[in-house]
Amino acid sequence: MAALLACGLGFTSGAQVAADQSAREVESAKEVDAGVDPTIKPGDDFFSYANGAWLKATQIPAGKERWTAGSEITELTRQQTLKLLDDAPAAPAGSIARKVADFRAAYLNDGAIEANGIALIKPMLDRIARVRDKAALTRLLGTGLKADVDPMNNGIFASKHVLGLATQASIHGEKTYVAFLVQGGLGLPDREHYVSSDPAMQVLRTRYQEAIGSVLTLAAPGVASDSASASSSRAEAVMALETAIAQSHATAEVSGNEKNADNLWTRADFARNAPGMDWSAFFAAAGLARQPTFVAWQPSAVTGLAALVESQPLQVWKDYLRVRVIADYADVLPRAFRDQAPALRGAAPASPEAGPPLSSRAQRANEATQSAMGEAVARLYVERYFPAANKARLQSIAANVRAAFARRVEAVTWMSPESKAVALGKLKVLYLGVAYPETWRDYADLVVDPADAAGNLRRIGERNYRQTLARLGKRVDNAEWSSDPKVVGGLLMFQQNSLNLTAALLQVPKFDPAASDALNYGAIGAIIGHEMSHFVDPLGAEYEVDGQARRWWTAEDISRYGAVNAPLVNQFSGYRPFPDLAVNGKQTLSENIADLGGLAAAFDAYRATLGSKAADKEYVRQQDRQFFIGFARAWRSLYRDDGLRKFVATNDHAPERYRVATVRNIDAWYDAFDVQPGQRLYLEPAARVRIW
Ligand SMILES: [Zn+2]
Fold it and tell me: 435, 566, 449: which is closest to 513 by C-alpha?
C-alpha cells in the first residue's frame, strides 16, 4: 500500500522500473526495425543501414550546408523556447515567467518607448556632461565597468565597455575565484572592423561614423555647436579614438590563448605597466578598491586604454561615452535612435534585393530576452520540457559510464602507473552536470517593468555586476554552470574539472526518455564517455586534479600513446568522402579516440546493467543491436557536397558517417549484426583498435 501511494506521489518502485524498462525495450525494438534500411548490409555501411528511414525522409533545409541531429534539436529548442515566451504573459504577476514576459513586452512597447523618450539615459548623459577633468573621466570609466565577458569558459573576449570584469576559476589551482579584466569599448564587432582594408569593412565604418554623428545630434538637439559640420567632425574624432582603442586590442587568436591567465597584475603593476590613468580611482569607482590582483587578459589593451585617457582630449572622450550609452540602449529608445541601432552595432546595410532584414524587431526582442533573462528563460524551459525523472535517469547512465571508463583506464598498458593515478583521481572528482544547474539564480529581487524597457536593461546589467563582484574571494564551486541549458551543447571546463551537458542537447536522438537503456547508452552514454575521456587525454593532460595547468602525462605516456593510436590514424585516413578527398586521420585523431573510448565505455556500462538477463544470448544480441543503432542515430546527418568538402578540410571531427564506423572496432558489433569478412567495414580481430 505504501509503495502504491509512493508511486502516486512520483516515486517509483523497483517493480515499476522493471516494467517501464521492458515496455521501452519493446518500443525501441519496433522503432529500430522501422528505422533501418534492410537493403543495406550493416557490415558494408552501418551509418546508412541504421539511419535508413531518416536519410530517406529528411532534406537539408534551403541555405544550410548540412543538417544533423544537432541541427534538428537546435531547431526544436528554438521553437520550444518561442512557445514558452508566447505563453509567458499568462503567468501570475511576480512569477519568473511573468518577469520574462514583461521584459519582452517592454522591448516591443512602442507607446511607452516613445513616451519615455531619453528619460532613462538622460541622467547618464548629464553625468558625462558634468565631467570637467581626467580624474572625473577615470571615475566614470570605473563606474561603467560591466560584467559581460567570459574569457575562461565561453570565449567572450570583449566587453561593450572599455574593460569588462569576470570572476572565474583560473588555471593555477586557485581555491577562490580570480578577477579578470578583458578588453572592450568597440561599437563595431571587433578590432578587424577598424583596421582591415577590406572594402566591406570600410562600408561598415562609414555607416558607423554617420550613425555616431546622427545620435550625437539627437542626444543634444538645439545646441549651438550641433551644426551638421560640427557633428560630423565630432563623429570623426570619436571614430579616431575608437580606432586607437582597437589598435591596442589583442587579435582574436591572441585573445583565445588560455595562458593569458598568467598575466596576473598587482595594483602596482597597473601603475607601472599602464601609466596615464589613476587606477586606484578607477577601481574604487568600480567597487574594487580592495581587490589586490587582476588578470589582465590582454595587457596591450589595458596599457592602451590608460595612454589614451591621458593623451586624448576630454571632449572626445565625452562624446565617445555619449555614443556608447546611446548604443547600449538604442534598441529601446525612440524611433529616431532605434533606426541607428543596426549601424551602431556594425550590422551590414539591408539591401533591397535581400528582402526583409534578417533581424526583425520581434526577433531582436526575443534574442534580447533570452540573453538578458537567460537563466530565467532556461528555468522555464527545463520546467516545461525536461522532467526531473530524465535528469535522474541520465545521472545514473553517467555514473555507470564513469565507472566503466575508470575500469578501462586501470586496464590500459600504455599509461604509466603515476599517470593512471592522476587520471583516476580526475575522473573521481569530475563534476558531471546533467541538463541544468543544481541551483538556480534567484530573480525575486529583480524589478521588471513592462513600460520601462531601458530601465529593465539597466537593472539587469547592474544586478549581473553585483553578482559578479560578490563572488570575489569565494571558494570555486566546480558544480557551477557556465552553459545555457536551453542552448544545445556540452562544455568542458578543465580548470574546474567540470562538464556541462545542456537540457537542450539531451533530446531525441541524443537521449530519448521513451527508449530502452541499450539505445540510450549507445547514444548519450557514448557522448558522455567521449567528453569524459577528454579530461584524461592529451587535452586534459594539461590540467591536474585540482585544475592546475600542469602537464601530468609523462614523455613515455606520450610516445606510447602515439604508437597505439597510429592504426586509428590510418583507419580514418582510409575513408574517402570523394575520390579526390580523404578524411585527415591526424587532424581528427583526438576526437576519433574520444569516440572510440566513449563508445567502448558506454558499451561496458550498458552490459553491466543487464544483470541476470545477461545469460539470455538472444536477448543480449537484441539489446546490443539497439545499443549500436542508438550510437548511429545520435550522429545522423546529411551534407551538401560543398559543405562536406569544407567540413573535411577544416573540422577536428570526422564527418558523422565515419564517426559511426567506429563500431567496427568493437567485437560485439560483429555478432550483433552478423558482420562477415569481405564486407566493407569488416576488420580482422587483430586490426580492431583499442586505446582506452
Ligand atoms: Zn570531443
Answer: 435
- 595 CA distance to ligand 1 centroid (A)? 7
**Dist. CA 337–CA 113, nearest whole Å:** 11
Q: What is the largest CA-CA distance in the chain?
A: 92
**How do strand 431-435 and strand 264-266 relate by DSSP bridges?**
unpaired
User: From ligand 1's centre to the CA of 119, what distance in Å?
Assistant: 50
Which cell goes with 407? 575500469
What value does the mean pLDDT take over residues 638-653?
Answer: 97
CATH of the domain at 150: 1.10.1380.10
* CA 311 – ligand 1 centroid, Å: 47
Contact 474, 175 (CB under 8 A): no
pLDDT (tens digit, 9 = 90+) per residue, 505-558? 999 999 999 999 999 999 999 999 999 999 999 999 999 999 999 999 999 999
Enumerate the β-bridge partners of residue 163: 183
How many angstroms separate the alpha carbon of residue 492 from the centre of ligand 1? 9
Query: Which CA distances in Å does 345 have to 148, 329, 653?
Result: 16, 11, 33
Amino acid (one-letter) located at 467: Q
Using the mean position of ligand 1's atoms as its centre, give its distance from the Cα of residue 591 in Å.
Answer: 5
519 and 668, same structural domain? yes
- Cβ–Cβ under 8 Å, residues 267 and 238: no
Q: For position 223, what pLDDT does the model report?
A: 58
Strand order in the sheet with 178-183: 163-168, 178-183, 293-296, 264-266
CATH number, domain of 551, equals 3.40.390.10
Strand pairing partners for 67? 638
Low-confidence winner among 214-223, 395-404, 511-520, 652-661 (lowest mean pLDDT): 214-223
**206: how many CB neighbours lie within 10 A of its CB?**
12
Task: Taking residues 669-686, report their average pLDDT.
Answer: 98
Distance (angstroms) between ligand 1 centre and the Cα of 653 equals: 8
Count of residues for the chain?
692
From ligand 1's centre to the CA of 588, what distance in Å? 10
d(CA 645, CA 640): 9
Element (H, E) at 522: none
Ligand 1 centre to CA of 499 (Å) is 12
* Domain assignment present for 443: no
Q: Whole domain around residue 156: which residue ranges?
A: 108-352+361-375
C-alpha 171 – ligand 1 centre gap (Å): 21
How many Å lie between the centroid of ligand 1 and the Cα of residue 594?
6
**Cα 70 to ligand 1 centre (Å):** 14
Distance 652 CA to ligand 1 centre (A): 9
pLDDT at 17: 65
Q: Name the domain count of the chain.
A: 2
In a shared domain, residues 371 and 434: no
For residue 138, being part of any structural domain is answered with yes
Whole-model pTM: value is 0.92
Q: What is the mean pLDDT of the chain?
A: 94
Q: Ligand 1 center to residue 586 CA distance, Å? A: 14
Q: Model confidence at 9, in pLDDT bands (50, 70, 90)?
A: very low
In a domain, 254, yes or no: yes
Q: Do 507 and 590 lie in a common domain?
A: yes
Q: Which helix or strand (DSSP H or E) is residue 296 part of?
A: strand 293-296
Beta-carbon count within 10 A of 437 CB: 18
Q: What is the pLDDT of residues 309-362, one digit of tens each?
A: 999 999 999 999 999 999 999 999 999 999 999 999 998 877 655 555 546 889
In tens, the pLDDT along 427-457 reads: 999 999 999 999 999 899 999 999 999 999 9
What is the Å distance from ligand 1's center to 426 Cα?
Answer: 17
Per-residue confidence (pLDDT) for residue 365, from 0 to 100:
94
Provide mean pLDDT across the span 56-85.
97
> Is residue 326 helix, strand or coil?
helix
521 and 611 assigned to the same domain: yes
pLDDT value at position 222? 56
pLDDT tens-digit map of 108-131: 999 999 999 999 899 999 999 999
